[in-house]
Amino acid sequence: MHPHVKKLLELQKVDQEISSLTRDIDALPAEEQKRKRKLEDLERALNEKKLLQQKAELDSRALDKAVRGNDDEIKRLNERLNIVRNNAEYQATLFQIEAVRKARDVTQDECLKLIESLDVHQAAVAAAQAAYDGEKKVFDEFLGEADALRKSRAGAVGEARGRRQAMTAGVPPDLLREYDGLYKTRQNLAVAPVQAAYCQGCYNKITMNDMSKLMGGSTIVRCGSCQRILHI
Ligand SMILES: [Zn+2]
Asked: 2: which DSSP letter?
């Protein structure tokens, strides 16, 4: 085997080790964002429910105040009945009382409906709060686990990266760059074995000429199909 390919093959083993150590850690930020968005959606839903509840409370209080205002008006009109000077004025006041009483009844109906709906709003807020609290707990646990995972891996990853750095000594920079590019774009397999004249990276056949070069071990041979660096 060409000595540089031998080195790259060892380097690839360390790179695969680093990849498996960091694969789940690398996925953490995206996962965190996803969970955060979900939590924010639940928080928004909770705030909307709270606003609806507040509005129903305020509206019911305003209607209640209006009903009490009508009651005062009716009381005042009833008192006037005692001091009216003629029958026409008496009749007019009775009509007025009737009109205010009708308006009062309509407002009171609306007010009662709103007061009844307060229970429904209360339940909706409680359900939204429970959903948010549940998700917040899950999110906080996730953050804790993610942090613990990062910390537990930091030592092993740092050690492997240090080893990798030492192993690149003696590999020509151009070849190292080519290897790094292939490692990223060829599913963590830049240096591929050849078995029975087939590249094990892409399963295409290697030419007779390349096979004999590989046997010779004095030149670096690449797969004609996937450009991976080959070894046997
Ligand atoms: Zn190939």
From this structure: -
At 109 the pLDDT is: 97
Q: From the CA of 227, how far away is ligand 1's center (Å)?
A: 6
- For ligand 1, the distance from its centroid to the CA atom of residue 64, given in whole angstroms, is 81
Q: 219 CA to middle of ligand 1, Å?
A: 17
Can you point out the beta strands (E) in the chain?
191-195, 198-199, 229-231
Confidence of residue 104 (pLDDT cuts 50, 70, 90): very high
CA of 209 relative to ligand 1 center, distance in Å: 15
CATH class for the domain made up of 26-169: mainly alpha
Determine the Cα–Cα distance for residues 171 and 145; give it in Å rounded to an integer: 39
Q: Are 190 and 209 in contact (CB under 8 A)?
A: no
Confirm if 215 and 194 have CB atoms less than 8 A apart: no
Q: Which candidate, 16, 19, 21, 18, places its Cα nearest to that of 152?
A: 21
Q: Does the predicted model carry a pTM greater than 0.70?
A: no
> 79 C-alpha vs ligand 1 centroid, how far in Å?
104
Give 162's strand partners: none
Q: What are the domain boundaries of the chain?
A: 26-169
Ligand 1 geometric centre to CA of 226 (Å)? 4
Q: What residues are paired with 231 via a beta bridge?
A: 193
Q: Cα of 9 to ligand 1 centre, how many Å? A: 16
Q: Give per-residue pLDDT as tens, 28-52.
A: 999 999 999 999 999 999 999 999 9
Distance 151 CA to ligand 1 centre (A): 38
Cα–chain center distance at 92: 67
